[in-house]
Design brief:
The chain is mainly beta and 439 residues long. It is built from three helices and 31 strands. The strands form eight sheets. It has a five-stranded antiparallel sheet, covered by helices on one side. A four-stranded antiparallel sheet has the order 9-8-7-30, with no helix packed on it. A four-stranded antiparallel sheet has the order 10-11-12-13, with no helix packed on it.
């Protein structure tokens, strides 16, 4: 049996248990939380890891919006806080670390979360991400997105772009393709498979993974008939279909759906009208998209086979991008009104329109966070581009650093750690933390 050497972090404080609707928390219902820095106790064998875990978790807690954070000095005895969290680090063999985290409701003394996460010391930051995501899930009913990845295209040399991934907090950037060509328009399936458009063979082609952890392979077109522009890739929720926009030789864009099992391709948008920005409903039965079939580009939905067409918007402002909330209850859209870009959401039947944000910069891309609490906008100003996270309450956070100058971002939850080693195979080797015990 491996002998454990324990590094006790001072029993830190954290978290209250409250059942609040994700994405629509009442500020008065947000629990208070204290999370003081770890103390120096025991053999101090993991002082660096303790500090890394704490600083990463603290930032994740702030970014989650699920808590009111209080300084340790403001909460004598923890009586004014709603919850207490404590974590202890244990040494395992071969450079592994076991982090035990416990969340206690201070009003009742009840243990609301008891979680153990194991991983290599090199990825203690990701262990902190996963612990915070579990805590957020206990408070809001929907796990957090600290342990998530933003996948994007970026220039590596004149005329060359490749696909990259980076953690939500801007760390651990890794290059996912190395074709030495224009490689753009990434899309990520729920199981971590990657697809993209590349010009590595001359005309544009769609390449991707046929199985989780598999090699990149040509998906479309298999014959030499194409050569026209390809864009707006989106995996179906079951990972069996891929929709995209293909431009005809006459310059008219149409939505195509590729069945990856049979290899059959079908145009599902009506011929003779431009269509773009398709996105799947979370159940995979419906597509939302933008079309100019009635003049000004508007938002429509249709069945995945092209039937049951329905228009959701009809105001004069031309619509640009559309994205379906992973919880299926809202669709986000952008529009151009004068010199302003407008961001709004509406129900899938077109009712309940709600304004979220106005921006003087054009919105080049739009996607939801994996938990449906916020939106990720790609803003374009001349040749410069930047990312902005927008909450449904209109609060914004600009992402700089490693995320400046990126294109076509996709925000995806990292795969289940139980399967992550296989599913993240195309990424550089990445020691993934494992979960121990029940959620």
């Amino acid at each position: 049996m491996t002998r454990l050497s324990v590094s006790s972090v001072s029993l830190s404080l954290v978290l209250a248990l409250a059942t609040v609707s994700a994405g629509a928390q009442d500020p008065a219902a947000v629990p208070t939380l204290v999370f003081p820095a770890p103390g120096r106790t025991g053999d101090n064998a993991h002082a660096d890891e303790d500090r890394e875990f704490h600083s990463t978790a603290l930032k994740d807690l702030k970014d989650s919006g699920a808590f009111h954070l209080l300084g340790a000095g403001k909460v004598p005895g923890g009586k004014e806080a709603d919850l207490m969290f404590r974590f202890v680090a244990h040494s395992l063999a071969q450079g592994n670390l076991l982090i035990e985290g416990e969340c206690i409701n201070l009003a009742t003394g009840a243990v609301v979360l008891n979680k153990r996460i194991m991983g290599q010391t090199a990825v203690v930051d990701r262990m902190a991400h996963r612990m915070v995501d579990f805590l957020v899930g206990k408070v809001t009913g929907t796990p957090g997105v600290a342990d998530s990845t933003i996948v994007f295209a970026r220039s590596t040399a004149p005329g060359i772009q490749e696909i990259f991934g980076v953690d939500r907090d801007g760390r651990n950037q890794r290059q996912l393709t190395a074709f030495g060509s224009l490689t753009i328009q990434p899309a990520v399936a729920r199981d971590g498979r990657l697809a993209f458009v590349t010009y590595k063979g001359g005309p544009p082609q769609i390449w991707g993974q046929g199985r989780a952890g598999g090699p990149f392979q040509l998906m479309y077109p298999k014959a030499s008939a194409a050569g026209t522009a390809l864009s707006d890739l989106a995996w179906s929720p079951d990972g069996q279909r891929l929709c995209f926009v293909q431009e005809s030789r006459q310059g008219l864009a149409a939505i195509q759906v590729l069945d990856l099992r049979s290899g059959r391709i079908a145009q599902v948008s009506e011929p003779g009208h431009a269509a773009k920005a398709p996105c799947w409903s979370p159940q995979g039965t419906t597509l939302a998209f933008i079309s100019d079939r009635e003049g000004t580009p508007q938002v429509y939905t249709m069945a995945a086979d092209g039937g049951q067409l329905r228009r959701l918007t009809g105001d004069p402002a031309p619509k640009g991008r559309v994205a379906w909330n992973p919880r299926e209850d809202r669709i986000a859209c952008t529009a151009t009104a004068g010199r302003q870009s407008e961001l709004f959401t509406l129900a899938p039947d077109g009712t309940g329109r709600q304004h979220v944000l106005s921006s003087p910069e054009p919105v080049a891309s739009l996607c939801w966070s994996p938990d449906g609490r916020s939106l990720l906008l790609g803003l374009q100003a001349g040749k410069a581009s930047r990312l902005r996270v927008v909450g449904l309450d209109g609060k914004t956070q600009d992402l700089g650093g490693t995320l400046a100058g990126v294109q076509c971002p996709q925000w995806v939850q990292n795969p289940d750690p139980a399967l992550a080693r296989a599913r993240l195979d195309p990424f550089p080797p990445y020691p993934v933390p494992a979960l121990i015990g029940a959620p």
